[in-house]
TrEMBL record:
PROSITE patterns given in the database record: DHDPS_2
EC category: lyase
Catalytic activity: L-aspartate 4-semialdehyde + pyruvate = (2S,4S)-4-hydroxy-2,3,4,5-tetrahydrodipicolinate + H2O + H(+)
Broad class of where this protein is predominantly found: cytoplasm
UniProt record similarity statement: Belongs to the DapA family.
SUPFAM superfamilies: Aldolase
Gene responsible for this protein: dapA
InterPro entries: Aldolase_TIM, DapA, DapA-like, Schiff_base-form_aldolases_AS
Pathway entry: Amino-acid biosynthesis; L-lysine biosynthesis via DAP pathway; (S)-tetrahydrodipicolinate from L-aspartate: step 3/4
GO MF terms, alphabetically ordered: 4-hydroxy-tetrahydrodipicolinate synthase activity
Cell compartments where the protein resides: Cytoplasm
Protein role: Catalyzes the condensation of (S)-aspartate-beta-semialdehyde [(S)-ASA] and pyruvate to 4-hydroxy-tetrahydrodipicolinate (HTPA).
Residue numbers annotated as active site: Y133 (proton donor/acceptor), K161 (schiff-base intermediate with substrate)
Name of the molecule in the record: 4-hydroxy-tetrahydrodipicolinate synthase
Amino acid sequence: MLAGSIVALITPMDSAGEIDYQALKKLVDYHVAAGTSAIVSVGTTGESATINVDDHVKVVMKTLEFAAGRIPVIAGNGANSTAEAIALSKLFQNTGVAAGLSVTPYYNKPTQEGLYLHYKTIAESSDLPQILYNVPGRTAVDMLPETVARLAKLDNIIGIKEATGDLQRLADIQALVSDDFALYSGDDETGLDFLLQGGHGVISVTTNVAANEMAQMCQHAAASEEAQARSINEKLLPVHNKLFVEANPIPVKWACQRLGLIQNGDLRLPLTSLSEALQPEVESALKQAGLID
């Protein structure tokens, strides 16, 4: 089971909106050196919603190439079309990708039965292990614990990224699934408490800018060293918060540029660069966390 600090990696781009693969390699090396446990490539933070299929697949495969076996790579393979999610799963199976991270179908608001059949069909379509991803704030659909429990019984569904930020939701899922079903927080602000209450890892936006700190925090949490973990988390709380002053990944790409991790914080439309009025807020958070002077 993958555990600990898992980065929801940004996809670096140049000013023309093309993928910057040199910067991508630099980011992969940064996370390997910092002790990040795994990389999610082309998830929400990687701009999956605005990257076409060709670029999506190429970014995942280049991330895998740059990782060179040093760090596991999870591929974003979610879609609001079941057929499209299946196609992505098939493209990533037998490539070395550790698993697919599949977000609940957005916009079309399926029923719980529709969610169950969506994921069941994906899981049965390929050998790629699947991690469910529930983030109702972005998709307008909430996958309930009972549905997660049904899906957890399928061999190829190995875990969930639960991004509601509701710790009661974690407890509800824990009561319904086996101990080997991986439970990942998708909410940095509550991620530490999620770990201390039995979660296995955090699929994190903050890890993009504080990789070493997040890795250490997760290690302390896993060792039941709560005081040490909380000390790190308290310093990072402003970052957890301010990386969402505009829609993710707008602030985190600006922050990565500010830290020199990438040359450009550019995004593809309809996403735009961080508003000038909010840049001092993000910069202040990075300073409070000790990430910049």
